[in-house]
Fold this sequence. Notes:
This protein folds into two domains: 16-137, 3-Layer(aba) Sandwich (Rossmann fold); 142-291 and 323-332, Dihydrodipicolinate Reductase, domain 2 (2-Layer Sandwich), CATH 3.30.360. The longest helix is centred in the middle third of the chain and has 17 residues, at 187-203. It is of the alpha/beta class. It is built from nine helices and 14 strands. It has helices at residues 25-37, 51-57, 71-75, 91-100, 115-127, 142-152, 187-203, 294-308, 316-332, and strands at residues 16-21, 41-47, 65-67, 81-84, 104-108, 132-135, 159-167, 209-216, 223-233, 236-243, 249-256, 260-263, 274-280, 283-289. The strands form two sheets. It has an eight-stranded mixed beta sheet. A six-stranded parallel beta sheet has the order 3-2-1-4-5-6, sandwiched between helices.
Amino acid sequence: MQGMQSTPQQTTQNPIRWGIISAANIGVKAVAPAIRASSNGKLVVIGSRNPQEAAQKYSFAPEARIYNDYQSVIDDPNIDAIYNPLPNGLHAEWTIKALQAGKHVLCEKPLSITAQEGKRMMDVAHEHNVLLMEAFMYRFHPQIQWALQQVRAGAIGTVRLVRASFSFDIRSKPDDIRLKPELSGGSLMDVGCYPVNFCHAVYGQMPQVVAARIHTATPGGVDMATNAVLDYGNGNFGLIDCSFELPTRQIAEIIGENGTITIPVPFTPGTSSVAAFIIKNGQMSEQSFEPVDQYQLEVEHFDHCIQTGQEPSFRLSETLENMATIEAIYKAAGHKWPMTE
C-alpha cells in the first residue's frame, strides 16, 4: 500500500482464507466464484443477517460456513481476508472493524463516502499492518493493462482527452439500495466512479478543476445522471458521464495527439472475448483479448500481495484522490454531499 510503514507479517504460501460479509449479488455472482476458482485463495465463511437466504444463494459453495451476522466472520480466527460488498454507506464501518481485527480487506468500490473517511480507513490498515484495497476489478483485465501500456509507451502521443461513459436503467427497481440517499447511493457513486477511476489511471493524477451538472429525479434524491468536465491542466481533459436512466452502455476513449485508443466494453466485459482499437493516421488496428475472469485476477493479485507482503498495484493514494474527485464533482454541481449529514 502507498505509504505503508511496514509489510504484513504473513508470508505463507498457503491459500488465503476468505470471508464475505453479506449476501450481496456482486459477492454471490462474481467475487465468491472468483475466490473459489482462484489458485491461491479459498472461500471459508459467509456472514449474513438472513442466513437462510445466504444458504440458498451460496448453495454452489457448500464448503463455506454461514454465520447469522457480520461480526462473527470478522472474529473468526481461521480467516485471513474479508470481502466487503455492503452498501456504500456501510463500507467504512465494517471495513474498519475487520482491519482492527487484523484482517486484510478487499472493499467494494467506492471505498468510502469521502476522501477523509477513506484516509481514516487507510490509517487503520497501516496501524494494524494489514492490506486494504478498493475492488476495481476492471483494472486487472488485460485490455485495460494493454491500453495503459500503449499510453505509457507513447503509441498515441501525448494524451489530451479521455472520454468515459457508464450507464444502465434502474428505474424499474425503486427499492434498490443504490437509490437510497441514506446509504450514499447515486449514479456517480455506483457507475460514475469507473470513468473517474479510468481518467486517473490514464493521467496519473487527479484533476485540478472540475465542472459538473447533476440530475436528480426528486428533491433530496440521489443523482440519477451526472456529467462532468475534468481539467488536468496543460490542455488535458476528461469528459465523463453516467446515468441510472439510460440503456446499458459503456465505452472509454483515450485521445492523444497522434492517435486514439477505443475500448468498447471497458468496465464489465464479462468472460467473453473482447477487443480494443487504435486509430492512427486514418488506419485502425484491432487488439483482441481471450476470455478472462477479471474478478479472479483481482482476487489472485490481492492474495499474492497478502502472501508476499507486496504492495497492491492499485494503491490507496489513488483511491483517495478519486474519492476527492467525486466530492469535487458533487460540489461543482451543487449537490449535497455527503447526503447523510
